[in-house]
Amino acid sequence: MKEALQIENLHFSYLEKSIGSGSWERIPESGFLNRLGLSHIMQDDLEKEIISGLNLSLNRGETLCIAGASGQGKSVLLRLIAGLERPRVGTFYYFGEHLSNEKHTPLEIAQRGVGMVFQNGALISNLRVRDNVAMPLRYHKVGANEEIEEKVNMALDLMRVRTEEHQFPHMLSTGMQKRVAIARSWAMDPKLLLMDEPTAGLDNYNRRNLIPLIDNMRTLFKTSIIIVTHDLLIAKELHCNICFLRDKKLTEPHSFDYWLHSDEPIAQELFRDLRET
C-alpha cells in the first residue's frame, strides 16, 4: 500500500461543561463522558463538533501543508493523527495497517513510526539540548547507549544544532528551539512526521534557515510530512500541495500556484495578501 496515512470519515467533538458563574470548560468528549457518566442525550446537547466526515490520504514520502483560518481545528487534527486525542468516529490506516479506535493511543501510533513537533517545541526545560534529543530514544530503549549517541549526533548535525548541545532550552533562540524539537522527533527515525506551525514566531533569518533543513530531511530520508501552518509560502518553497480545513472538512489538495489563482472563496480570503504583493 502506497499511503503513509489514510483517514476515512473522521468525526471529533468537544463537550462543554459548566464550571459555574456562567463559564464553560471545553474538554475532549471521551474524558468528560467517562468521568461524569452523561447520557447520550446530554452529550448531544453539549457537544461541539470540530471535525465532521473528514478524509485524508498521504502517500509515502509526500509532504502536505494544511492551512485554514484560526480555530478551525488544524492542530486538533494533528493531535488526532498522533493519538493525543481519540476520534468519536473514523478509520485510520498507518502505512497500510488499520488501527482500531480502542488502540488509538500515542504509544501505539509512535510505535508505527509517527513523530510530532509541537508549535512551542515542548522541550524539557531542565534538560540540556543533547539530553532533550536523546530522551525519547532512552525512554523507548532504542538500542544500546552507543547507538543512541550516534542517532543523537546525526539528528543534531541534520538540524545544525550540535554546537548548542550542552545548552538549556531557555538559552536558545526561538529558531534554535524549533530545530532542537525537530531533531528530537527525527532522532526516532519517524516514517511520518507531524509539524505544528514550524515557522511561527521566527524572524526571516531563522525561517530561511529552517525551510531548507526540513527539505533536506524529507529528500534524504523520504520522510512523509504533514505541516499545519499559517505560513502559506512553505508549500511553494517545499514544492508540495496544500489543502484547507474549512467547514470541518479538508479541501482537495492542490499546488500553491493553483490556490494563488483560484476563485474559490477560501483562496480569495487566505491568499489576498500574497496576491497583492
List keywords for this structure.
11 strands, 12 helices, 277 residues
Structure description:
By secondary structure, the protein is an alpha/beta fold. It is 39% helix and 26% strand. The protein has helices at 29-36, 40-46, 74-82, 106-110, 129-139, 145-158, 174-187, 204-221, 233-237, 256-260, 265-270, 272-276, and strands spanning 3-20, 23-28, 47-59, 63-67, 89-94, 97-99, 114-117, 192-196, 224-228, 241-246, 249-250. The strands form 2 sheets. Strands 7-8-9-4-10-11 form a 6-stranded mixed sheet, with helices on both faces. Strands 1, 2, 3, 5 and 6 form a 5-stranded antiparallel sheet that branches. Helix 5 runs parallel beside helix 7 (174-187) and helix 6 crosses helix 7. The radius of gyration is 20 Å and the shape is globular.
How is the secondary structure organized here?
Blueprint: E1 3-20, E2 23-28, H1 29-36, H2 40-46, E3 47-59, E4 63-67, H3 74-82, E5 89-94, E6 97-99, H4 106-110, E7 114-117, H5 129-139, H6 145-158, H7 174-187, E8 192-196, H8 204-221, E9 224-228, H9 233-237, E10 241-246, E11 249-250, H10 256-260, H11 265-270, H12 272-276
Parallel strand pairs: 4-9, 4-10, 7-8, 8-9
Antiparallel strand pairs: 1-2, 1-3, 1-5, 5-6, 10-11
Helix pairs in contact: 5-6, 5-7, 6-7
Could you give a short description of this structure?
The chain has helices at 29-36, 40-46, 74-82, 106-110, 129-139, 145-158, 174-187, 204-221, 233-237, 256-260, 265-270, 272-276; strands at 3-20, 23-28, 47-59, 63-67, 89-94, 97-99, 114-117, 192-196, 224-228, 241-246, 249-250. It is of the alpha/beta class. Residues 18-24 and 30-44 have low confidence and may be disordered.
